[in-house]
Amino acid sequence: MSAVRTLMTGLVLGESPRWHDGRLWFCDWGAHEVVAVDLDGRSETVVRVPSFPFCIDWLPDGRLLIVAGSDRLLLRQEPDGSLVSHADLAGLCDRPWNEIVVAGSGNIYLNSIGFDMMAGEDPSPGILAVVTPDGSARQVADDVAFPNGMAVTQDGSTLILAESHASRLTAFDIEGDGGLSNRRVWADLDAAAPDGICLDDEGAVWYADVPNKRCVRVREGGKVLRTVDLDRGCFSCALGGADGRTLFMTAAQWHGPERAAEGTRTGQVLAMEAPSPGAHRP
User: Fold this and answer.
1) Which domain of life is it from (predicted)?
2) Which of 241, 238, 262 is nearest to 252 (CA)?
3) Considering its fold, how many domains does the chain have in total?
């Protein structure tokens, strides 16, 4: 197995990594920054986001989208660098919003975990929503157990969701109008807690796992292909690099939601060679 190398240190809590325009972009939740870093570790803060949590992806035309989770807003960065509202999500769910993935069709999939974890609320079911290119937003799935990372298959036919509190990856067919149907278990993951995910071109999913301090590659059905053990919680992962074969992982010490935003800088961006390149999206 390829060795894991450290690309960046000194982060608070890295999340939502995406390979874009020759660099890895990610969100440092604790520092409230969207950061871009190249393969030599040179980084810059692209934009500051006061929300917690927040996650990123891009529209097909290249404009950056930011889920401002605690503000219940989907933001869009304009060419002049300003942030404007792309969609108001509060009418769909008044609890914080979490992850995002943009399909090749331009449909934007988002999820809300259904409770305010940072405020200490008891868990309750979450939802998935779609924002279509005409700007309308609607719920497309409910009763999901802490929805987390999402990915869309290369042909745009399937959305795969990590359900952290159900220890599984769940798949949906994507309908022509952006709706989701044919919900099914893509992989049971035993005692795992899948967080961020990404797809490779062999159809396997990498999932990050915070409590088990690892990143795992699995096939549909749950067969484990590779496990990368770390010394701290793995929050998210992405495939990228010049040939798409670099697996990036964001990791940090996790001491519970009550201490998540305290600013302890144990966060890292790690990288290693993967057996297969990434298959967008993300």
Assistant:
1) Bacteria
2) 262
3) 1
